[in-house]
Amino acid sequence: MIPWASLNGHLERLCVPSARDADKTIGKDVDTFMALIGAEKWNNDSRFGKAWLRTNLAVRCVVDPFVALGKVFDEDKHHQLIPVNHSSFKDIADFLITFNVQGTKA
Fold first, then answer.
1. Bond preceding residue 17 cis, omega within 30 of 0
2. Among candidates 83, 63, 61, which has minimal Cα distance to 73?
């Protein structure tokens, strides 16, 4: 996962901890669901993360169970689904800050 080549994952996998903590009860229920369907046997981090997050969002987004990930970040009414101020985003935020070059004019 950018910027850490040593970590497997993708955006959805990065969002799981924030979504899980946003509603811990539903997060535990999604964990239970994933265990019941044998998702740990998939041996595919990408599929697991995407399925976990999609299930969580489908349950928690009252207005649209198919809410797109982009809408979660773009539309204020969905921000509570995956709070970007969660500690799981700290490393990526710190990395992105390194692109801010002081003293340059826009």
1. no
2. 83
Task: Using DSSP, state whether 92 is helix, strand or coil.
Answer: helix
Query: Tokens 């959805």, residue?
Result: 12
74/105 Cα distance (integer angstroms): 27
- Number of neighbouring beta carbons within 10 Å of residue 35: 10
C-beta neighbour count of 14 within 10 angstroms: 19
**Measuring CA to CA, which residue among 72, 45, 50 is closest to residue 61?**
72
Task: Report pLDDT digits (tens) over 17-61.
Answer: 999 999 999 999 999 999 999 999 998 888 999 999 999 999 999
CB contact at 8 A, 87 and 79: no
Token readout for 47 is 């599929």
Quick one: tokens of 20? Answer: 């899980």
